[in-house]
Design goal:
There is one protein chain. The protein has one domain: 3-methyladenine DNA Glycosylase, Chain A, CATH 3.10.300. Helices cover 13% and strands 28% of the residues. The chain is α+β, with helices and mostly antiparallel strands. A hairpin with a 3-residue loop joins strand 3 (79-84) and strand 4 (88-94). The protein starts with 24 loop residues before the first helix and ends in a 10-residue tail after the last strand. Strands 1, 2, 3, 4, 5, 6, 7 and 8 form an 8-stranded antiparallel β-sheet that branches.
Length: 200
């Protein structure tokens, strides 16, 4: 992994506190870089995120609550999973002091149970296991029927701080694959990581 700052290896990783998910969605999206995400013990360290808020048109919450996006208007610290173009699933974390904000988890550096992820993805290249939201969900076996609406602080999810990432180690850019709000710089990633979905 890239150097992210000081870490005491003797300390057990601490789970994210509930208040983490109540902070502003852009602050949370930035702060998620360096957090370890496991689903049933499979996963790695988050290296790329995107923030979405109900006030901007690229958000699924922009037009208000529906049966499909209801989780976005529920309490924070829950998983919102949707299917993109009917092809692959995407994992979001609901965050913020008010309803209607979420963070798309775009990429992980795979660290735990790589053989399981390789079998699910059909590749042995670690850089191709979780370098995109659809790949990530396939590698971690995340689906809408199984995981949408589940709390993030309970199994099968486990979120812990893996590394301390300094502000100058985080790249900021515009989001990927949106046709509205394209100018908003709400994509965050670990500078120099080979596991990003796309370079900044």
């Amino acid at each position: 992994m890239q150097h992210r700052g000081a870490k005491t290896f003797a300390e057990a990783p601490a789970p994210l506190a509930p208040k983490f998910f109540r902070q502003d969605v852009t602050d949370a999206a930035r702060s998620l870089i360096g957090v370890r995400l496991l689903v049933e013990g499979v996963g790695g360290v988050i290296v790329e995120t995107e923030a979405y808020h109900f006030t901007e048109p690229a958000s699924h919450a922009f037009r208000g609550p529906t049966s499909g996006n209801a989780v976005m208007f529920g309490p924070p610290a829950h998983a919102y999973v949707y299917q993109s173009y009917g092809l692959h699933f995407c994992l979001n974390f609901i965050c913020g002091p008010e309803p209607g904000a979420g963070i798309l988890i775009r990429a992980l550096e795979p660290t735990e149970r790589l053989a399981v992820m390789s079998a699910r993805r059909g590749t042995n290249d670690p850089r191709n296991l979780c370098s995109g939201p659809g790949k990530l969900c396939q590698a971690l076996a995340i689906t809408r029927p199984r995981h949408n609406g589940l709390p993030l602080d309970l199994p099968p999810f486990a979120l812990t701080r893996a590394e301390v990432v300094s502000d100058d180690a985080i790249a900021v850019g515009v989001r990927i694959g949106v046709s509205k709000g394209v100018e908003i710089p709400w994509r965050f990633g670990l500078k120099g990581s080979p596991f990003l979905s796309r370079r900044f």
